[in-house]
Amino acid sequence: NENYETVPFENLMVTHVRMRLAAQVVGAGFIFRVAAILRESGQGNDMSPWVSHSIPFQLLSKEQESNRMNAPRVFWAGTNRAACVAWSASSQPPKKGYEIQMREEVDGLNWKTVTKSSIGSEFVVKNMTSNNGYRFRIRVSGKSSAAFSPPSKVIYTLGLSDAMKKLFSTLENGDLLKNAGGETVSLEEGIGGKEFLLVYASASWCGPCRRYTPSFADWYRSLPSNRSVEVVWLSGDRNSASFLEYYGEMPWLAIDYKDETRKALIDHFDVQGFPRIVVLDAQTGVVLEESAVGKALDVNLWRSRAKSGGKISEPESPTVEPAAQSACCAIL
Length: 332
Fold this sequence. Notes:
Blueprint (H helix, E strand, L loop, with lengths): L28 E2 L2 E2 L2 E5 L2 E4 L3 E2 L4 E2 L3 H6 L5 E4 L6 E4 L11 E7 L7 E7 L3 E4 L8 E7 L21 H6 L7 E3 L6 E3 H5 L4 E7 L4 H16 L6 E7 L4 H8 L5 E2 L5 H9 L4 E2 L1 E6 L5 E3 L9 H9 L14 H5 L2 E2 L2
Parallel strand pairs: 15-16, 16-17
Antiparallel strand pairs: 1-6, 2-5, 3-4, 7-8, 8-11, 9-10, 9-12, 13-14, 15-19, 18-21, 19-20
C-alpha cells in the first residue's frame, strides 16, 4: 500500500542509516523515502521534499543469501573511460554465464543490465563517460530467483586529461601513429585512461638507442593488456625512411615524423641526447622521472611519486641497463 511508517533514529546529522527489518515477509518489497527536518516548531516541522526510489527493496531468503555471489572487484581497464569488472568464477561455470548490472552513482537512477551472458571471470565495460562514478553487481544468469551480489565499490573512470590535451594540442588531426604501417589512433583512445605516459626520445643512428630499445620493448610487451602505461615515441631520425625502418621495431605509439609536434616536444622536454625516457603522470602532467633510461621501470614507484605530487624520498631504483645509462648520443 501507499502508507509510510516513520522509522525513528536519534542522530539527524547522517547521510546513511542502517536498519534491520525484523519478522518481515521474505520476498516482500519495501520502498523508503527520506526528508530533512529544516526547522522544528510547536506547530509541526518544516520539512524538505521527500526523496524516494521507484524499485522496491526485496528481502532475501536464507537460501538466496547463502548462494549470493560476493561483490565484484572493479579496477581501471587501462583504456579510455573503461573499467574491468572481475569476480571469483565457479569451478563449474554456469551454462548461461553471468549477468552484470551497473548503476551510475546518482540518486534516483536504477540498475541497468550490461550483459546477461558473460563467460569467464572478467568483463570490460566501455563508454563510461559520467564523472559521478559507477557501481556493479553480478549474479548467475538464467536464474531469475537468484539474488544479485552486493554492489561493488564506486569506480571513477579515467579519460583523456586536460594536461594531455594541452601537451598534445598541436598534434596534427589529433592522431598518433599506431604502427609503421601508417595505422593511426586518436589521442583520446591512445592515451586516455592511462595512469602514466612515457615519452621516449631516440633515433636509429644512435648506438645506445639501438641497444636499449629491444629491452624496453620487451618490458612493454610484458605489461598486461589492461596496462596503465603508454609510450609515445619522439623520433630524432634525420629522414622519414629511417624513422619508418626504426619504428618497425617498436610496439608502442609514435608521433608522425612529419608532424611538427614531434620537434616541439623534443624542445619542450629539453632533450639534449638520446636515448631518454620522461615519465609523466598522465592525469596531471607532472614529471615523475626526468630520465628513466637505465633505471628500473617501476610502476609502483611512479604511483608513489604521483601521490606525493611527483616527489619521493626513497632512494633511486637499481640500474638495469648500465650501458644504456652511461652512453648517450648528443643531438647535433
